[in-house]
Amino acid sequence: MNVIVHGAQSDAAAWEPVKALLSEPTEVPERRGRNGVPLPAGYSLRTEVDDLHAVLDRLERTTLIGHSYGGLIALLTAQERDDLEALVLYEPAIGLNTVAVEAFGNALAGGDRDLALEVMVTRIAGERSFRDTDPEGWLAAQEMLETTWEELKQADGYRYAPPKLRVPVTVVVGERTDRIFGPAARDIVLDTGGRLVTLRGEGHIAHVTNPALLAATIEGRSTTLDA
User: Which residues of the chain have pLDDT under 70?
Assistant: First the structure.
């Protein structure tokens, strides 16, 4: 059984292409702050971890997969469990560019939603093609910015400490976004004895741009990877 924790500025539906390609049954819980479900008062990373525990508690033999902010949530949750089969982290949101996070918040507070999304996509996530390739999606994505801001503040406030894990770990980075997410990924691999995998030609959103490669990576059978 797979459980995928999606990232900020995203939702469960974005992972349907990957889910469809995985051989094991896969659940992608919709996190709060989306589709009419607001973030609660006092929202924190603890909120997310508790929500994820509630999902995992009703499942068995789970491979936990987390992307970006969802990767951070998955990492924290995995440290509190001893019943996972494996942990796969795709560019976990650790060690974010604080200046860029502040720029996002300033743009949003000033009412410039277009600039806020541009900061998120280009400076925080390192993806520069979204606006040109999917202009309708660009406009739709602006509806999620308030939730993204709350999530970014949580990720930016997290201070990495070597995780204590009792599960095999794979950390995935995109070749094009290694400069942003690679340092934290390598720290996790070093501290856990895990495996580092690079997605050739991909960046932070391979679940959108190359779901077949990402699904194969999750299942450990891709032939187009650099370790």
Answer: 130-134, 221-227
